[in-house]
Amino acid sequence: MGLLIVGSIALDTVETPFDKVENALGGSTTYISLAASYFTSPINIVGVVGNDFPQKYIEMLQEHNIDTEGIQIIENGKTFRWGGRYHFDLNVRDTLFTDLNVFEKFDPVIPPKARKSSFVLLGNIMPSLQLKVLNQLEKPKLVVCDTMNLWIETTYDDLIKVLKQVDVLIINDSEARQLAQEPNLIKAAKVIRGMGPEFLIIKKGEHGALLFDENAVFSAPAYPLENIYDPTGAGDSFAGGFIGYLHQTRDLSFDNMRRAVIYGSTMASFCVEQFSTRGLEYLDKLQIHDRFLEFRELSRFDDNE
Amino acid sequence: MGLLIVGSIALDTVETPFDKVENALGGSTTYISLAASYFTSPINIVGVVGNDFPQKYIEMLQEHNIDTEGIQIIENGKTFRWGGRYHFDLNVRDTLFTDLNVFEKFDPVIPPKARKSSFVLLGNIMPSLQLKVLNQLEKPKLVVCDTMNLWIETTYDDLIKVLKQVDVLIINDSEARQLAQEPNLIKAAKVIRGMGPEFLIIKKGEHGALLFDENAVFSAPAYPLENIYDPTGAGDSFAGGFIGYLHQTRDLSFDNMRRAVIYGSTMASFCVEQFSTRGLEYLDKLQIHDRFLEFRELSRFDDNE
């Protein structure tokens, strides 16, 4: 059965040293589903917007074969808006504003046809909402979850409940250290896997990503980008490429997860090359596979013995 | 012809959260030559010590087939001493003291038999001394150089002169950003390669290393160590494994450089597992090759098409 993606849908105002966009399409659901759309279908997304949300964005998602029935449109409501400014080195950003608007009362309702989704991506939303989503599902085969420092700090108990039901947790390195209360990432991975997830992915930005299961570690390189125009959505694009490829192949072996991590990194690298979701809107499968092969060239070495 | 290594020889006092050692063997020459000794010979080292330097350390180096004729022993002089303390996460260290002693007037004299060395490793010493070394050599085939933020800040012009004669520069990521005055490492690599070195290696600690030439980038993973007992000497062990393997194979192709970077990372991983040079003293070739293969397992992925 299908792939279900639940998270935020937003209008982003983003400044970087290179340019500025206002009210551009953003939100975790958006980036995740676009990235996944190059690998698989059907994809159902669940989120909430106001009636100020441009219809053209919904049409663009639909053109990517994404089923938007699960988007709630709140009459007389305003869409979630986020504003951020990236510094010169693009690793640091300031949040300029966060207007939750209709997202504040988001109550995720999974359309009946999506309740049997076999693969589920819980985007970075409040853990209690992630639990609500899980409670509406009929035995998904794979639950992939994103979270953030805010939930680790403010809703730790709910997060722990979520993690018990999660197969793959995707977080960044500082979140991993915070969640495990352990500076060494290898030790931290053991602690976090002990909280529930069989697989853990730690994203390290310009340093790539690590995938852990009980016995193995996979270290994925980062794509060597000279020009990063907008880092927004990179982590969500990673998650989308990752689960999209897994859903396409239906293979949860560690070797296939390695490939899925590289496809995730591939989609993240396309994402940051343009503002907002533009880097994910006009790709084709050949381009994606070519970049996958570039990742191989980047990290391959042979034994000479 | 042989491999020449020039740098510091020191007695280190190191505190970590786990233990403390006083007057243990240290210095760049020491770590580099021990790491290289598992790959190749003859190795000539050049450095300076006082007559307080324990003879047992010189014998230990000799047992590793390292020619110590180039070690100057200064009568009534004291050996260079360094003291440092590592914090809980081991990525941060405080220098507690630096007593240069005989190292302050170090004037590297290359023994006649080592002047025709084909491969040269210039450890992290003042650039003017690195130039003095180069001036005594007869057309080496490969010059590998280490440097540090102090020389970028205080003796930039001399460093630039050195770089024009260097084939491979090995520095860490913050030094690369500082030297190139560019936060993006891919752009920084282009700037630094423009200063002279055909190859550039950027070490990123727990995030691995990057190797650059004109056309390609190789991203090497870091070995997933749960327990790092003493990070001192990791960078020098990397350099020693790197040049030792290149000197053994006499192959300067990019593909062989990839392997050399992994052998460098391998030696660094052994180094930090024990205090001082102990992690490098009792290895054998099989152990080293096994860990090389672990690096392959860590970073391999296949194309499923």
Quick take:
Chain A is α/β, with parallel strands linked by helices. Helices cover 37% and strands 24% of the residues of chain A.
Structure keywords:
homodimer, 305 residues, alpha/beta, UDP-N-acetylmuramoyl-L-alanine:D-glutamate ligase, four-stranded mixed sheet, 13 strands, 37% helix, 24% strand, globular
- State the separation between the terminal residues of chain A, measured CA to CA: 46 Å
Helix content of chain A: 25-40%
Helix and strand content put the structural class of chain A at: alpha/beta
Largest interface chains and counts: A-B, 47 and 46 residues
Instruction: Tell me about the largest β-sheet of chain A.
Output: 9 strands, mixed
CATH topology annotation of chain A: UDP-N-acetylmuramoyl-L-alanine:D-glutamate ligase
List how many beta strands of chain A DSSP finds: 13
The low-confidence runs of chain A, each spanning 5 or more residues with pLDDT under 50, are none
* CATH class term of chain A: Alpha Beta
Spatial order of the strands in the main sheet of chain A?
Answer: 5-4-1-8-9-10-11-12-13
How much strand of chain A? 15-25%
Oligomer: homodimer
* CATH architectural group of chain A: 3-Layer(aba) Sandwich
Q: How many discrete domains of chain A?
A: 1
How would you spell out the order of helices and strands of chain A? EEEHEHEEEEHEHHEHHEEEHHHH
Average pLDDT over all residues of chain A? 96
